[in-house]
């Protein structure tokens, strides 16, 4: 039962599924029937049989429906066929009529067709002609512009040519771009642009080469214009310094610069043309970089000096002219173009140039030994700086450099004046200036500030105390101040600064140059005592004249010497030092002269007795000293006294050394007596007061050592000497035991040959024993002194 029910259920489901499949087949496109039919075979076994049965049933149903429909419409179909058969005859008749009409129409239309084709052909020709004219009208401007372009290139109007190319590319060629000749034109335009760039760059290179040659002329013209504006002249008139401003041209400096500029001397069109061309071509930056790079190279070449530039002022002038010309060109390009040069670039170039210029001038000026050339160089630097300052270039470093060159200028002046001073000293006769008339006296005092009431009261002829070199030195010092002042022209410095510069340079002249010349003069071997005395007198008067030199500088600068920062002249110390050096030379030469006389001494140290008179050499020496000290009357008292005391001490020392000379082995009593006569003459000379001002027997004390030594031997007072030795009140306090021993031993060695001592030895042997006893005691004293020391 259950099995039967299950079979019935499956049968119902199968029937339902077949109905669905049939509906799907009926409603679906035939291309999609395959999957539907496959599902029939995928179902239960033998399902397709049941489906075929179901399909047969459905077909039969549809056939019955079709049959019903055909039966319903059959009568209408029969009626339609009947009507169609009736129309057939009329259609055949109409077809004949149409065919006949068409034939007749074709025959009539052949001529019209021929005429129509001719009209069409003419219309096409007319249209082509119109089109050709229109195209030609479009092409003619292009050809005209291209022809214009060629003319512009031939006439070197490259900027206009570039504008024409731009119009061709943007306006004319696009209208007729399909034509071959326009394509050829368009392809040729870039090449023409490159040609224009190359040509303009070549012109620029020629310009850069030309500007190097013209820079010298440009700079010369500009510097000449500035130099001619205002000229400051410092000159002397009746011994007074005058400052004059020469207004050679009435216009201002800026107006002068506008009169004749770099543009008037150089054609800048290649720069402008090349700039415009590269700007139009969109390559302006390349052009700017190239121009700046080339100008920087040229700047380095311009700043490179010639090897022998320092020899002449023309070398410096050409150097400055080229630099001024270079920077004037740069200034013109800076202001006449927009962006080709910038202020930063020109400032960079100028700073580089300033560093190089200052280094070059510092080096080359150091080799210059001519003060006139250094002064001319300074004037050139001032004009150079003023010229470039007028164009806005900062020049403070140049004026700072001038202060360094000022020191170099002062050094060259000092060297020049050293030669002048030495020549004056060489030509001086070192004797007081003889004045025969009032005119000669006025001539001297007009050159040197000398005032002496006593000398003025004297009648002519008379003599001035200083020698001829004094007024000459004074005049040359003033000339040096004039020369030093010339460097201050146009330096834009205050008179206070100028006053300070003059005083400092004058101090250098006095303390270094003149002082050195005086020191050198006093050391010369041909300068004798008379000349040294005159030198001392001269330095005294020059020292007194220093205040007049200060007044002279004050009159020039109008700066009061009481100003806080005013430098004082060091002439007082200079001439004092020179005077002290001369005094030292006097002492030295006096001693040398004494030594020369001493060398003439020819004592017979073994003589049995003296000649009874002083030696000839010593008398000559005393006469020389006496005449020399008479010349010293013009010297300050202390100088003469010191010289006299020094000479006497040196003479005493030399005589003492003579008798104590180690090479002298034997001295007789007669020689001692002769030596004593010479010392007596020395003491007489000292007591005669050869130089006034000594108190009592001060000068005679120079010979006290000799006197006590000789008295000891002449009196033979050994007992007193030995007894009082070491006592402050000793009669022979100045006699040293070693000195007495040395001389006694020299006399002891001669006792064997001396007849006097022979008689002593024969008559009084005790005396000989006494000598030996004294020698022993003296040796004991000497040994005691050495142990004590």
TrEMBL record:
State the superkingdom. Eukaryota
**What InterPro entries does the record point to?**
EXOC6/Sec15 (IPR007225), EXOC6/Sec15_C (IPR046361), EXOC6/Sec15_C_dom1 (IPR042045), EXOC6_Sec15_N (IPR048359), EXOC6PINT-1/Sec15/Tip20_C_dom2 (IPR042044)
Keyword NAD attached = no
Q: Which GO terms describe its biological process?
A: Golgi to plasma membrane transport; intracellular protein transport; vesicle tethering involved in exocytosis
Please state which protein family the record places this protein in. Belongs to the SEC15 family.
What residues does the Exocyst complex subunit EXOC6/Sec15 C-terminal domain cover?
398-746
Q: Which UniProt keywords apply?
A: Exocytosis, Transport
**Function as written in the Swiss-Prot or TrEMBL entry:** Component of the exocyst complex involved in the docking of exocytic vesicles with fusion sites on the plasma membrane.
Query: Which segments constitute the Exocyst complex component EXOC6/Sec15 N-terminal domain?
Result: 54-223
Gene Ontology terms, cellular component aspect?
Answer: exocyst; plasma membrane
What is the name attached to this protein's record?
Answer: Exocyst complex component
Lineage runs: Eukaryota, Metazoa, Chordata, Craniata, Vertebrata
Source organism = Oncorhynchus mykiss
Transmembrane ranges? Answer: none
């Amino acid at each position: 039962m259950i099995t039967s029910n299950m079979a019935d259920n499956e049968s119902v489901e199968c029937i339902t599924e077949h109905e669905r499949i049939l509906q799907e087949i009926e409603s679906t496109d035939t291309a999609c029937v395959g999957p539907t039919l496959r599902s029939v075979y995928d179902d239960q076994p033998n399902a397709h049989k049941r489906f075929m049965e179901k399909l047969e049933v459905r077909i039969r149903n549809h056939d019955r429906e079709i049959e019903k429909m055909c039966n319903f419409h059959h009568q209408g179909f029969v009626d339609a066929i009947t009507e169609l058969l009736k129309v057939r005859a009329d259609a055949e008749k109409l077809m004949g009529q149409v065919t006949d009409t068409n034939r007749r129409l074709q025959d009539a239309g052949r001529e019209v067709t021929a005429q129509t084709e001719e009209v069409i052909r003419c219309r096409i020709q007319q249209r082509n002609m119109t089109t050709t004219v229109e195209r030609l009208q479009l092409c003619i401007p292009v050809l005209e512009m291209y022809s214009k372009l060629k003319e512009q290139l031939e006439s070197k109007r490259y900027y206009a040519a570039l504008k024409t190319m731009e119009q061709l590319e943007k306006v004319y060629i696009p209208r007729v771009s399909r034509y071959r000749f326009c394509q050829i034109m368009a392809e040729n335009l870039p090449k023409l642009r490159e040609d224009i760039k190359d040509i303009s760059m070549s012109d620029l290179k020629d310009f850069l080469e030309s500007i190097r040659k013209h820079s010298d002329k440009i700079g010369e013209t500009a510097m000449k214009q500035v130099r001619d504006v205002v000229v400051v002249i410092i000159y002397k008139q009746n011994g007074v310094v005058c400052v004059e401003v020469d207004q050679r041209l009435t216009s201002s400096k800026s107006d002068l610069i506008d009169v004749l500029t770099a543009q008037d001397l150089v054609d800048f069109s290649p720069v402008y043309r090349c700039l415009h061309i590269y700007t139009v071509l969109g390559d302006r930056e390349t052009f700017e970089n190239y121009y700046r790079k080339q100008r920087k190279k040229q700047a380095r070449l311009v700043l490179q000096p010639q090897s022998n530039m320092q020899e002449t002022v023309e070398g410096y002038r050409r150097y400055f002219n080229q630099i001024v010309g270079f920077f004037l060109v740069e200034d013109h390009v800076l202001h006449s173009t927009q962006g080709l040069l910038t202020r930063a670039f020109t400032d960079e170039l100028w700073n580089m140039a300033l560093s190089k210029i200052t280094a070059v001038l510092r080096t080359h000026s150091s080799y210059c030994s001519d003060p006139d050339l250094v002064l001319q160089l300074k004037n050139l630097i001032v004009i150079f700086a003023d010229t470039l300052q007028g164009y806005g270039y900062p020049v403070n470093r140049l004026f700072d450099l001038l202060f360094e060159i000022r020191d170099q200028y002062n050094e060259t002046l000092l060297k020049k004046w050293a030669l002048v001073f030495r020549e004056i000293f060489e030509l001086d006769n070192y004797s007081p200036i003889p004045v025969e008339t009032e005119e000669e006296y006025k001539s001297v005092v007009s050159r040197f500030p000398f005032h002496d009431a006593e000398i003025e009261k004297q009648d002519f002829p008379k003599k001035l105390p200083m020698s001829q070199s004094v007024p000459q030195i004074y005049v040359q010092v003033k000339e040096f101040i004039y020369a030093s002042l010339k460097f201050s022209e146009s330096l834009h410095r205050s008179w206070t600064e100028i006053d300070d510069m003059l005083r400092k340079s004058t101090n250098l002249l006095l303390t270094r140059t003149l002082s050195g010349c005086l020191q050198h003069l006093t050391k010369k071997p041909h300068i004798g005592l008379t000349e040294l005395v005159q030198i001392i007198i001269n330095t005294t008067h020059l020292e007194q004249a220093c205040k007049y030199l200060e007044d002279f500088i004050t009159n020039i600068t109008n700066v009061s010497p009481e100003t806080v920062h005013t430098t004082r002249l060091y002439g007082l110390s200079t001439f004092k030092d020179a005077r002290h050096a001369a005094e030292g030379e006097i002492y030295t030469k006096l001693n040398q002269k004494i030594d020369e006389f001493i060398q003439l001494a020819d004592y017979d140290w073994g003589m049995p007795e003296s000649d009874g008179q002083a030696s000839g050499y010593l008398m000559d020496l005393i006469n020389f000293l006496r005449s020399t000290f008479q010349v010293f009357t013009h010297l300050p008292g202390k100088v003469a006294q010191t010289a006299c005391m020094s000479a006497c001490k040196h003479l005493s020392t030399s005589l003492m050394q003579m008798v104590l000379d180690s090479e002298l082995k034997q001295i007789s009593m007669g020689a001692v007596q002769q030596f004593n006569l010479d010392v007596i003459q020395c003491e007489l000379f000292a007591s005669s007061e050869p130089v006034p001002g000594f108190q009592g027997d001060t000068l005679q004390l120079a010979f006290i050592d000799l006197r006590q030594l000789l008295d000891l031997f002449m009196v033979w007072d050994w007992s007193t000497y030995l007894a009082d030795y070491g006592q402050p009140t000793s009669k022979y306090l100045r006699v040293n035991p070693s000195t007495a021993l040395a001389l006694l031993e020299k006399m002891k060695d001669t006792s064997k040959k001396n007849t006097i001592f022979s008689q002593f030895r024969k008559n009084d042997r005790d005396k000989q024993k006494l000598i030996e006893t004294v020698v022993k005691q003296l040796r004991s004293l000497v040994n005691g002194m050495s142990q004590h020391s």
